Amino acid sequence: MEHLNNKYLTGKCLVATPFIDDERFVDTLVYICSHGKDGAMGFIVNRKLKDFSFADLAVKMPLNPNLNLDSMFLYQGGPIEKIRGFVLHSSEYFKQGTLKIDNNIAVSSSLDVLTDIAYGIGPENNLIALGYSGWEPLQLEKELIHNQWLVVDAHKDLLFNTPDELKWERALDETKIDFNRYINITGYA
Length: 189
What we know:
The chain is an alpha+beta fold. Helices cover 21% and strands 29% of the residues. Strands 1, 2, 3, 4, 5, 6, 7, 8 and 9 form a nine-stranded mixed beta sheet that branches.
């Protein structure tokens, strides 16, 4: 098992600041599922897809689910590989292809998890993302130095139980930073 100090920001959330220079990430909350010397990977957790739903995906698989899938949404996980699916979910669900991030959160990318969700036997909490957000080595660290992101602890309530339109603001509130008093100047003493 990897030592906690080697996990960098794995299992944390990034809160986009008003100073972010990439419009694709304005007002986003990103869960980091992997961060190390080779870069970082995560999922935007507060942007539902408007034109494609889980019901649309299930028809293409094809599934004959037990549940009404119209109330289940897909999320824009990020700008990379936009058609590749991932499921961020609570860690009580574990099958082959599941990567446990910490004691509460895991990620799966197999069709099994989608099938289990459609039949009502999947993870208790889940968020289905198409695409992901990625950073090259040291790219995320540079963005942090330039005040583009703030880091907060990730927890199931924020990720799965908070309405999407409130996630970014709630995470920003957890930082206790008043951006009316925040100056975007970096430097070295």
